[in-house]
Amino acid sequence: MYWYILAGLLQSLVLSFVYATRGFSSGFAFYTAWISQGVVVFVRWLAVCGVCRAILGPFRGIWALTWRILGVLGLAAMVTALALGKHDASRIITTFDLSLELSIASVLVGFFFFARYYNVHIQSSLRSIGIAFCLYSSFRAFNDTFLQILFRHYAATWSLVDQITYLATLILIASSIYVLHSQETSRIKLLPRQTYTEFIPRVNERLAALNDRLNQLLKPGTESKL
Amino acid sequence: MNFLLLLVGMLIAIILGLLVWTAGKKNTTARDEISQQKGIHLACKHLTNLPQLRQALESSDFAYIEERLGKRSAQKLQRERRSVALRYLEALHEDFVHLMRAAQLIASLSPEVKATQEWKRFKLSLKFEMKYRLLKAKYSLGKLRFPAMWNLAILVSTLAIDLERVVNEMSAAAVPGRNETSTDR
Questions:
Q1: Tens of pLDDT along A106-118?
Q2: Helix/strand/coil for A1
Q3: Is residue B137 part of a domain?
Q4: Does residue B57 fall inside a structural domain?
């Protein structure tokens, strides 16, 4: 997460310098802005993975399952957005941006779903960071879509709106990181391996039996046989 | 409105809706509590009330009351008994939810889980939820009698007994000197 904040700050510095020396509308500024944006989004991806790992990582079993599913989910969201977006030369970059943002947002929602399903306790500061990343990515994806449709007429508004939300997200994340450091980390004691292999298949069998019984109950006229 | 905007807008609305649903819940089970299995509630309290419920739902009992109090009063009583039975069904569901939570807890604290088993349980619990709601609706309409509920109660209780045994084993395994895996955050 530190790297993300650092990357964001560095990008602002580099872009300010480029805009001041080469002009805002120059080709060099255009490429610098989008390449640096690519780097920042990549670092944000790593930060999101870091948040997910910090929360679910200690639960080795479910983490091994979760990260694989989230990987597939992220890839699926990315491919969908790439297929949906426009592919002409001037819009292809925003299509890539849209796909990355949609992918980050989907992965985070999927991650929160897993944490809720397994009733994993999430420290409030880590939860805030996850929500901030998800909201920012969702918002940016929406903003990118508007930009694809309205293009030049929307460019100035797009930039302004993006800057405001970016700053708000950065402040929220920085304050959450500050709070996170003052919180204690707890130790997770895992169960012996055989507990799962012995117990869970039996629970599933019992659940299947329960569902069969419910099926019978729901069929008219079969109740008396039960 | 543009198709792309509509589609992405809908996708994002779904993502945000899910975000509110998934991240909004306060997890009550603290990590240190998890490791000590304090979050597991296995007692099936519903079983103690089952005999009374059986009597209340017996058709012979209803006929006797009708004979003694008249049709109108008997019907009123029947309605009240049905609402009690519905509450019993809800309590049964609550027990099932507790048992599922215990199973999730065991899965989350296991060093290795099997995707097939997890998927199976997820699918089965979803099915259970749907069928429970259908059953409840059926019961509210008076189309279900006691034997059906008895069967359901027995199944949930057997699951609870199985779980209780495993939790006891887990507690025994947690005694220092036994084979256990641990990790640090």
A1: 999 999 999 999 8
A2: coil
A3: yes
A4: yes
B13 occurs within a structural domain:
no
Answer yes or no: is B86 within a domain.
yes
User: What domain count does chain B have?
Assistant: 1
Closest in A113, A192, A204 to B18, CB measured: A113
Domain of residue B165 covers: 47-169
ipTM attached to this prediction: 0.74
Number of residues written out for chain A: 226
Q: Within 10 A of A178 (CB to CB), how many other CB atoms are there?
A: 10
Residue of A nearest to B4 (CA): A84
The alpha-carbon radius of gyration of chain B (Å, integer) is 23
The helix or strand, by DSSP H or E, that contains position B182, with its residue range, turns out to be strand B181-183
Q: State chain A's mean pLDDT as an integer.
A: 83
Using the CB atoms, write b or e for A93-122: b if 16+ within 10 Å: bbbbbbbbbbbbbbbbbbbbbbbbbbbbbb
> CA B41, CA B51: separation in Å to the nearest integer?
23
Distances (CA, A) of B176 to B38, B39, B179, B180: 18, 21, 8, 9
Check CB contact of B59 with chain A, cutoff 8 Å: no
